[in-house]
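Review this chain:
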Amino acid sequence: MALSGIQIFKMLPNTNCQECGVPTCMAFAMKLAAGQAELDSCPYVSDEAREKLEEASAPPIRPVVIGTGDSALKVGGETVIFRHEKTFVNKPGIGLLITDTMDEAEVDKKLKTFKELEYDRVGMKLKADIVALKDTSGDPEKFLKLVEKVKNMGLTTLVLMSDKPEVLAKAVKAAGDIRPLIYAATDENVEELGKLALENNCPIAVRGKDLENAAELTSKLADMKLKDIVIDTGAREIRQAFQDHIAVRRAALVDKFRPLGFPTIVFPCDMTDDPIQETVFASTFIPKYGGIIILSEVDGHNLFPLSVQRMNIYTDPQRPMATTEGIYEINNPDENSPVLITSNFALTYFIVSGEVESSRVPSWLLIKDTEGLSVLTAWAAGKFVADAIAPFVKKCGIEDKIKHRKIVIPGAAATISGDLDEELTDWEVQIGPREGAHITPFLKNWKAA
């Protein structure tokens, strides 16, 4: 039976040490009760309390970390079926499949693209997360050579895939302490791979024949005291895989069925030979409910749409999307280029920056932190007003980059121009267009002198 936050709080040490990352023990207890934190985060909980709390406070879908350090991938830990209920938490990992029978030049090209390709959007870096290395040759030395090659390139968030436990044992040893995901435990090898995962402190995936079989396999691993488990339901047809993922999420969250309370791994790369259809299939599992999504290739045509979709789905719906405060250079501005300012609401930023870029007029765009609110909403909330804008303009460093002292404010916020004149006495405040579509003609007619 689940415990309330108050019941959990009474069993905690009440030190308010903040080492769990939460300000107080009460707040930590509430997070435990909601399945949003792990008991292991508290370094001072007693053994007696741990025994009582461990089962009651376990998240319905266990969070699993693959890899180590800054590049580690965390999946699972979800607490809702629908994003609008609260938010989705740990975004799915987008992965690339590499086999040991691929030509070396092809492997180099794929890995180089995987490593270097990223997009900057709303101040976030969008890129792929994990590499799946598959033994298809049956040659242990060939597979080990591939593992070492990838690790030496600095890619350390890995899935190691083989049907042979002895090959996986050597590969895990070659991987060292980077905690790769071992794939995959089946009816035939579950005990052997379970021991391998325990000995090396690695997460392990199960590959079931169906959902029932997958649950049996996770139960066997749980009996071996393994916790970091990932589920492959075994489906390689889009309809069945889609149904399985919904069933896993509902079983874990609604029915509290522990054997399916783990993140999943899905292989669109095995569902079709058509790269466009593969991308469409992958996009299905971002909202419904893939933990790791493995693709046959990672390139601009699939990474960008999938990572943007993932960013949108895994952004907290209760918080506006926002970009980072600062100075943005558009079209290589110089000391005579115009200076515009607007709020950091993501949509506002994209519209304004896009119109400025399309105008081909070199410009400086100042983005003021308004907590993700649009210009009018931020003005009404007192976050895009003269006494907030003026200190930002003076401290951001734009004065060192330009000769003139003219700043263009959004036409929708024209009412602040008088107050801003008083705050920025050395500046000329100009009122810009109300609509983004009018930015281009405005800039083309703008003059520094």
About this structure: The chain has three domains: 5-57, 64-313, 326-444.
